[in-house]
Write a structure and sequence with these properties.
Belongs to the FPG family. The chain is built from 8 helices and 10 strands. With 292 residues, it is of the alpha+beta class.
Amino acid sequence: MPELPEVESLVEFLREQAVGRVVARVEVVAFQALKTVDPPVTALGGLTVTGVSRHGKFLDIDVDGIHVVIHLARAGWLRWREDLSGAKPVRPGKGPMAARVRLAPDDDGREPGFELTEAGTQKRLAVYVVDDPATVPGVARLGPDPLAEDFTPALLKEIVGGSRTQIKGLLRDQSVVAGIGNAYSDEVLHAARMSPFKMGSTLTDGQIAELHEAIVTTLRDAVERSRGLAAKDLKGEKKSGLRVHGRTGERCAVCGDTIREVSFADSSLQYCPTCQTGGKPLADRRLSRLLK
């Protein structure tokens, strides 16, 4: 799933490639992906891309005041194309294509643009065409952005301290902290040397400060590693930069212990016992007693 660092990198990439260009037309292939009807997507034709920004894991493309807000969900991606002039229309229900945005041709006749694709059978990619991004339900409920200047240890204590929820779940809750998903929550907790099952209410001020440092440093480092990369290279960079997530059975780069996994119905988490749980493996079943 694209998380804050990848979406931030897509924002920077699209600022370079798309801002200042005129939208020729938008082709919606997966009609279930389009969540709004007013303004219609046809209203985007002839307008200019004036800005690109991010709200948590939402990508926001400003087209002369009309916002195309995109959530790539678990298996979605944005694929930039240098020339779409020869691209044939895609039939709904065929292949991974969800939408295609064609930009006005360059002087050399090339028609750049991008395609939104989604792998798998669970189609959750969402596109909203709105006058105000705040009207998108997922954007409206977002918590503070961890890369914002006002995201301080004191603020983290205010939103996490006292919670009777596991810290892994809190980090993934977009209404608590915006932009962190399954992969980077594993990475943050490894950097903070903290069990994913630790309760928010048990964190000391010192642990909250360490967690804050781990959040900010992990995300900023990931953004920096991705800076300047083309959209097609971001997935590979993310995978290569992860130290624990997706590395079950490998050696921890910090201590050399074997990275372990806890599996759930539709996801899993990875952690290092030596770094995070005092050397004790976590029981790999959903209803296990939680290690404090």
